[in-house]
Amino acid sequence: MELVVRYKRVIGLDIHQAQITACALIEEPDGSARIEQRQFGAFKRDHRELADWVASLCPDEVVMESTGIYWQSPYAALEAAGIRAKGVNARHVKNVPGRKTDVGDAHWLATLARAGLLRGSFVPPAKLRELRLISRQR
Question: 123, 111, 9: which is closest to 66 by C-alpha?
């Protein structure tokens, strides 16, 4: 079964504690598709580098698994760069055999996003996230 392409420029992000694996699926004007994969670290400068790379590709969709707390900092860096990413529930995308690597996960996320099959989880606005953090620390 072939997936119908809904978005021409998508990026899937597989996020872990120490590393972010990114896979961009870009459809060229001639109809051919190219895959661009990169890995980024987990520090703030790496998140800014990720945001710059994502912005340079002008994506239609950016998706990331919203597991644990590790997605929050890259999400904030993307948001600061003016990129609206979707945090998706890992249970909705993990039940596929044969994708056991970070690169495979990022590519699968991008493939599903390209077909418009992923629904983003609710992510509160930045001000509300900040207030929640303050109340948790209290």
Answer: 123
pLDDT in tens, 69-107: 898 899 999 999 999 999 988 776 665 556 577 788 888
Query: What are the residue ranges spanned by the domains of the chain?
Result: 9-137
Tokens for 42?
Answer: 């987990």
Q: DSSP class of residue 43?
A: S
- Alpha-carbon separation of residue 16 from 3, 8, 22, 129, 132 (angstroms): 28, 26, 11, 21, 23
Q: How many CB atoms lie under 10 A from the CB of residue 54?
A: 22
Among 27, 53, 57, residue whose Cα is nearest residue 40: 53
In total, the chain counts a number of residues equal to 138
Model pTM? 0.84
Q: Which residues are CB-neighbours of 40 under 8 A, at least 6 positions away?
A: 19, 20, 22, 46, 47, 49, 50, 53
Neighbours of 69 (CB within 10 A): 8
10 Å CB burial of residue 13 (0-12, 13-18, 19+) is buried
Class of domain 9-137: alpha beta
